[in-house]
Every structure is written in C-alpha cells, then in structure tokens.
C-alpha cells in the first residue's frame, strides 16, 4: 500500500471516529460498552471502503506521473478510458518533449506512457 493511500485511510478512520462522537475513545475506557466499540469499528471500515472505492485522485495521479518524468511541468490532467481502465491522463512537458502518462484510477499504476517531440 502506498504512503498516500495509508494517509488517506488513516484520515478517513479519524473522521469516522470523530463523526461517531468519540465513542471509540469512550468505549476503550469502558469495557461494558462493547456494542459502541463495534459500531465505531464498522464506521471506520465503511470509511476505508469508501476511500478505496473512490480510487486515486487527480492530485495523486499527477504525483505518480511526475515521478515517471522528473522535472516536468503539468500541462493538463483529465479523466479518460484507456485499455479498458478508467484513467487519469496527465500531460507533461519537459524541454521540447511532451509526455502523456495514463494512470489507472483504481490501482494508481501507469497503464500507458507516450512521448512526443514538439
């Protein structure tokens, strides 16, 4: 699991715990309230699944593309279908070359990479 995904999951779990009114913290100190602890845990699990089902964001796709082409600047980033995958198409420019990096929204992997000399 990538560091960014781990941070997103931790943030979602924290938000779910806060939305539950802090019952996860209260139930940790009072063992008689086991059902509240279970509901907080299920809320955190639901939040994690919501984060993972939404996939990689535009910002995350840009970071992945810039790792592939260091020193390039982003021209455009948009959603597209590529090779049967819902992807982010990130267009970059470095010097006289243009790059198109297609990042899978579901997995964060580069599906396609193209270079054009302008």
TrEMBL record:
InterPro entries: PepSY. Residues 34-54 are annotated as: Disordered. It comes from the Bacteria. Residues 60-112 form the PepSY domain. Keywords: Signal. Residues 1-19 form the signal peptide. It holds the Pfam family PepSY. This is Peptidase. It comes from Microbispora triticiradicis. The lineage of its organism: Bacteria, Bacillati, Actinomycetota, Actinomycetes, Streptosporangiales.
